[in-house]
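User: Round two. Same drill as before: sequence, then structure, for each protein.

Assistant: Same drill it is. First protein:
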Amino acid sequence: MFVRQASKIESMPSESVTEALRVEHRGLIVAAVMQCVAALETEAFEIANHGPGSYLGSEGCDVEAQKLLSPLAEFVDKQRTIDRFRIILQILRKEQIDTSREPYQSTILLVGLRNEITHFKSLWGQQITREKLSRGFSTLNHDPPPFIDEYSGYFPHKCLSADCGTWAVRTSVSFPDEIYRLLGVQSRFESVRDRITI
């Protein structure tokens, strides 16, 4: 919903995008990024506390895995977002996610973007460009919002676009999909995939 609304703003003629619409646009993309990472953290919590497949009901829940995970759920919840899934897979003696490929690489970048937004510090000039963030995003080739001045800093102005929001949503679906595959359970998204496709 947030990304679709941001896309509508980006499709307007640049001269008709007021300052209020620019603020709304940035807020929509920030909301999408924050929600996407929160969804990842919630999924790790659900798996650790209730077991893989718990959302499928008693017939789909891996009860043995739940017995192994639940005593360690509080410990898992205190780890970095991406590490929570690594630990869950390790406890259950499952294959680890390939850290050199997608969707892991995009998920690391997504969590980094959320952290930059959460701990944003307004800086001037060259300091505005967050080198690590800019380098990571340059490979994604996201189009900046068309109404952003070419001299604006990369983050947050050029970075927070509808392309970025779309990527965030897709990443927050593809990463859990891969985790479900490794856990050997059906993806939580199967029943709602048509509603989360952008």
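Second protein:
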Amino acid sequence: MNIFIKQRAINFAKHILKTKQTVRQTADVFGISKSTVHFDISKRLKDIDFGLYTKVKKILINNFNEKHLRGGEATKQKYLKNKI
């Protein structure tokens, strides 16, 4: 595996650990596709640094479990904005 790809996956993981951001938010910060971030974190990082992978995986699972709440809040804000 390319050194650049390994370092990129580690950078994504460190960013997610530091900020607790979602894959989509991380992709926006780095200016790269969400698919690339997800693949680097979920597949490549496992082979590169398993300890880091397990820490990030916990955050990703938590984000996944909360996504319906964030979506509901966004919808609520949208309709409140349109009501005014």
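The two ends are 53 Å apart (CA to CA).

User: Perfect.
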